[in-house]
Amino acid sequence: MTTSFETVTSADGTPIAFERTGAGTPVILVGGAFNDRTTVAGLAATLATDFTVIAYDRRGRGDSGAGAVYSVEREVEDLATLIDHVGGAAAVFGHSSGAVLALEAAARGVAMTSLAVYEPPYVVDDSRPKPAADIFDRVRALIADGNRDDAAELFLVEAAAPPAEVVKGMRDDPFWAWFTGLAHTLPYDLALCGPGNVLPAARFAKITAPTLVMDGGESDTWMRAAARAVAEVVPGARHVTVEGQDHGVLHQPDALRGPLTEFLR
């Protein structure tokens, strides 16, 4: 199956790079922190037998530009521009903070034929601490100082919330370079989630697109609670648990084929 590389210019003049594969109804894939279009490529290939799949580099990543000044509004415009580019109507799938971006875009009126999200990282119960109010400033300061290693570690420990000793061990893995390579985009994800990762229930109650909210049966308690909470506040949303999966479901894209193909058609 042929995959084509393309770019489109967002509202502020920033080039947004994407790959298009497959044929059928357009579906745009939105990755989260430490993700670019390559990390959703497996899911793109899985869905491409039924859909035209758009896997894109969010701004500041891969082959996309960063723009002069970051804001959530600019990222929403990027997604809207992609939808316009593929014909003015598309389904959207977002993972983690990419799910937050997709939800924010839908709540702000970006036209979607349907919306599917996997584990948007809101903190809605006391099963984990909320990220500190100053994490955005601390991560941004470390990046400004050129300390990408500590910025990535801080984000993982306080925002993603795996055990600190696990993250320290990750720093010795050759794959750690992937995390540090995208560390400059972590403030974008923190800005999307907002201080304390508080679920904006009133805003999401305005979403009109048919919505599917997924979590993994092996995911952390707080992530599963967040998925249920999002499904409760988005009008008419469905909640589905993908059994045997956790937050790293993009490494097992076939697990998403069934629920996404059924819902996004």
From TrEMBL:
<feature type="domain" description="AB hydrolase-1">
    <location>
        <begin position="27"/>
        <end position="256"/>
    </location>
</feature>
<dbReference type="InterPro" id="IPR050471">
    <property type="entry name" value="AB_hydrolase"/>
</dbReference>
<dbReference type="InterPro" id="IPR000073">
    <property type="entry name" value="AB_hydrolase_1"/>
</dbReference>
<dbReference type="InterPro" id="IPR029058">
    <property type="entry name" value="AB_hydrolase_fold"/>
</dbReference>
<dbReference type="Pfam" id="PF12697">
    <property type="entry name" value="Abhydrolase_6"/>
</dbReference>
<dbReference type="GO" id="GO:0004806">
    <property type="term" value="F:triacylglycerol lipase activity"/>
</dbReference>
<dbReference type="GO" id="GO:0046503">
    <property type="term" value="P:glycerolipid catabolic process"/>
</dbReference>
<protein>
    <submittedName>
        <fullName>Hydrolase</fullName>
    </submittedName>
</protein>
<keyword id="KW-0378">Hydrolase</keyword>
